């Protein structure tokens, strides 16, 4: 009865702790779906036909652009040979996964140049860019130098220079279009639109949903992504991207791949159109392609060597050349929204406040500190055993020597302590292994097997055993202490050790209990005690 009551009290405590760690927001299913007017993505102006792809041969020029005194980057200019000027031009801005001009946008930029559009692909400045630190305002100033270079390029109409940006690069292009008024047009492809802290929960939940991950895993996403990441330097997760979209006053083309679950393909398009409309701009064209994040076919994942969607470059060129001819919002011969029917799974949340664990540091202390303390407890136990062995050997050699005081654990304490420590380490290790397996499947979009999904339930069942072992240890300890005090009240000497004797045994006991409690708190965060 005492054991059952203690177990229930401990379990309820960790259930309540897990509940307190939840956030007051969740990632919800997206409902406001966009209906396309036609599956055809072709873009045409009422002002007449535009220069088709392949009309001109393309000449490449390797140049350097000085971004700061003593710091220059390489860039590639592709221009149509023999095309009349002045002609439109396009600056390309990198997404998160690229940096070298020679390794990206070659097919896009060459196709545009063959349709009479001069293009410039610069290197991304990498000395100020890393996984943990990115300054988009500073990056926009670097791209300004490339923009000015393109405006002054021979044969280019300086009033008809625009920007093509993908993914993370669309945040940079939005800064540029907000701060300078000479950007003739902007192309936003696979734009996250929202700050990273809002976009990432939507993307992570979508990935987990596609691989059929357990709901318990998906519920961890808000708790993780609502935390303070400042200890890692990930300040760009909170980059305020939306206010810059209030200044989209130039013609804008928005492109998304319907197979891309990482971006808000419908919610983001609606946000861009709404903010442009509020700024008095209705010249926003939206196109959806049955492709991945990079508008490429053959895989939902970004892989090298995949071909662009067959109509994509033609649509880009027709739109840019149409804008160059002065096509207004009401002068397009094709629908403003067209292509494959999008189906965004989840919505980017509007708020991302943290739960009880506000800092990633606290979670890391729990996840790392618990196992570290248990490993220290193991070392302490080994050291204590070694010391006992040394004392025993000394007594064997010198039976008349001074005997050490009594050391050890009370009856039943050692077995329970060992079970608690080893059990906590095993469950924690299985949790980490399971989480890494889910992440690997999510990154490859490989569905989890039914056995892997059931593994989450098995992990939860194992986790429920740990509070029982802790309850058994506490119950036994209380019983031993109570028995010890009863014996002290009589004139009968106490029988043996009531809990632990010797500093080594006490140290092992304290480290094991504290480390195990930290692991139990970690399991509560991951929802293993949720009902």
Automatic annotation (TrEMBL):
Keywords attached to this Swiss-Prot or TrEMBL record, sorted alphabetically, are: Hydrolase, Membrane, Transmembrane, Transmembrane helix
Q: In its keyword annotation, does this UniProt entry include Cell membrane? A: no
Please state every residue range assigned to the domain named BAAT/Acyl-CoA thioester hydrolase C-terminal: 145-295
**Matching Pfam families, A to Z?**
BAAT_C
Task: Give the matching InterPro entries.
Answer: AB_hydrolase_Est10 (IPR053145), AB_hydrolase_fold (IPR029058), BAAT_C (IPR014940)
TM regions (residue ranges): 363-390, 413-436, 448-474, 506-529
The organism's superkingdom is given as Bacteria
Q: Which residues form a coiled coil?
A: none
GO function terms (MF aspect): carboxylic ester hydrolase activity
Official protein name in the record:
Alpha/beta hydrolase family protein
């Amino acid at each position: 009865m005492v054991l059952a009551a203690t177990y229930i009290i401990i379990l309820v405590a960790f259930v309540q702790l897990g509940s307190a760690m939840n956030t007051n927001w969740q990632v919800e299913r997206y409902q406001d779906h966009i209906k396309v007017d036609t599956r055809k993505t072709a873009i045409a102006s009422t002002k007449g036909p535009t220069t088709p792809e392949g009309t001109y041969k393309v000449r490449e020029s390797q140049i350097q652009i000085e971004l700061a005194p003593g710091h220059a980057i390489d860039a590639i200019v592709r221009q149509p040979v023999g095309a009349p000027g002045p002609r439109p031009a396009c600056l390309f801005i990198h997404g998160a996964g690229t940096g070298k001009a020679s390794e990206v946008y070659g097919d896009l930029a060459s196709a545009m140049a063959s349709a009479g559009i001069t293009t410039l692909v610069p290197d991304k400045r990498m000395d100020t860019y890393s996984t943990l630190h990115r300054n988009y305002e500073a990056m926009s100033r670097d791209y300004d130098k490339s923009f000015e270079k393109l405006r002054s390029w021979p044969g280019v109409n300086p009033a008809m220079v625009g920007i093509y940006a993908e993914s993370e690069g669309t945040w940079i292009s939005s800064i540029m279009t907000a701060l300078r008024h000479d950007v003739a047009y902007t192309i936003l492809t696979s734009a996250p639109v929202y700050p990273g802290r809002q976009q990432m929960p939507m993307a992570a939940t979508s990935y987990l949903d596609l691989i059929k991950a357990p709901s318990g895993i998906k519920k961890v996403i808000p708790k993780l992504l609502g935390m303070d990441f400042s200890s890692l330097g990930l300040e760009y997760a909170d980059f305020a991207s939306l206010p810059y979209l209030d200044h989209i006053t130039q013609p804008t083309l928005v492109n998304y791949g319907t197979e891309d679950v990482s971006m808000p393909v419908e919610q983001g398009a609606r946000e861009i159109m709404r903010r442009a409309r509020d700024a008095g701009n209705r010249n926003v064209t939206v196109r959806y392609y049955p492709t991945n994040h990079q508008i490429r076919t053959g895989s939902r994942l970004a892989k090298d060597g995949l071909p662009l969607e067959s109509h994509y470059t033609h649509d880009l060129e027709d739109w840019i050349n149409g804008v160059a001819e002065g096509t207004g919002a009401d002068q397009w011969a094709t629908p403003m929204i067209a292509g494959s029917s999008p189906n965004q799974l989840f919505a980017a949340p509007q708020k991302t406040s943290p739960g009880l664990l506000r800092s990633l540091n606290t979670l890391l202390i729990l996840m790392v500190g618990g196992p570290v303390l248990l490993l220290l407890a193991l070392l302490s136990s080994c050291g204590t055993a070694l010391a006992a062995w040394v004392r025993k050997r000394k007594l064997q050699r010198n039976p008349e020597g001074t005997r050490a005081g009594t050391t050890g654990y009370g009856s039943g304490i050692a077995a329970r302590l060992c079970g608690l420590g080893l059990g906590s380490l095993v469950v924690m290790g299985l949790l980490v292994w399971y989480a890494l397996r889910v992440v690997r499947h999510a990154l490859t979009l490989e569905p989890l097997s039914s056995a892997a999904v059931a593994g989450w339930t098995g992990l939860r069942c194992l986790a429920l055993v740990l509070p029982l072992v802790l309850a058994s240890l506490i119950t036994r300890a209380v019983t031993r202490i109570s028995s010890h005090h009863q014996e002290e009240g009589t004139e009968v000497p106490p029988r043996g050790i009531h809990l632990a004797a010797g500093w080594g045994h006490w140290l092992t006991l304290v480290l094991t209990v504290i480390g195990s409690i930290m692991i139990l708190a970690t399991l509560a965060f991951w929802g293993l005690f949720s009902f």
